[in-house]
């Protein structure tokens, strides 16, 4: 770790495996250090949340040399020599905001012809714009839940599903909850946000519709919760280092070609609104992960979905970069599909 890295005072929190076991780490630049010698009470990253600010202060002092004894306890190694795991495994369901970027909604309305059957593409776009501007003014966020078992690391391979050929990418800003809250006001949300991370919410588009259940219509469970469908990380960047989460750039490259490139200011409902809404229904707990929706540029818009051998690189300003290779499907017919044969 260089003096310039130390001078930045910015660090992330991650979880890594060095081959001899999993450990919580502080990350600066491209190096990581096991936190357990410095903070013996911290066996995993989730343990940091109990005294989040105090623990962050101790880490900062050890990094910048203010705590010389603590500095000597941090043994730095290249993250290239480590396996990056999800920085903090969610303790409960993932809270996911759907249809929360204006331009993304308009693109999807055109791509999937969500509107009048006789409407032109421009009419579909314009009518969706009117509807969503009204929703922003007087509507509520839409939140569904994902499973922690679908989470994988920022550099892990992702696997195509065994059914369908339209696995889609959706890079999103993830928010880690640091304190328990219920019915919190939007202007108090900053008190419960621990930090931010990158999440790619992969979606098997073929599996979304449920024509056999027209009254319900969609099935997010099977479309979004298969193993490796939530690449997360590589780190959690503490909220103290992200002064304006509405000014972050989200980018996704597919085999080096830009597919998503937007700012988080295109959110219909901002982070305080999302957390206030979610907490009006459920009690949020430390370690809960809320993902805030994906901007424009998904595969549905491009007419190009993930294929074996593809490489996705997802970046959000100040939060690092994910890199995931796409593996072939296992080739096993899903039991629920086999039963229809």
Automatic annotation (TrEMBL):
GO terms assigned for molecular function:
hydrolase activity; metal ion binding
Source organism: Gulosibacter macacae
- One Gene Ontology term from the biological process aspect of the record: small molecule metabolic process
InterPro entries the UniProt entry points to: FAH (IPR051121), Fumarylacetoacetase-like_C (IPR011234), Fumarylacetoacetase_C_sf (IPR036663)
Name of the protein this chain belongs to? Fumarylacetoacetate hydrolase family protein
Query: Gene3D superfamilies from the xrefs?
Result: Fumarylacetoacetase-like, C-terminal domain
Keyword Ribosomal protein on this protein?
A: no
Q: Does the keyword Metal-binding apply?
A: yes
Q: Note the superkingdom of the native organism.
A: Bacteria
Say which family it is in. Answer: Belongs to the FAH family.
User: What keywords are annotated for this sequence in UniProt?
Assistant: Hydrolase, Metal-binding
Q: Which residues form the Fumarylacetoacetase-like C-terminal domain?
A: 94-326
The residues the entry assigns to the signal sequence are none
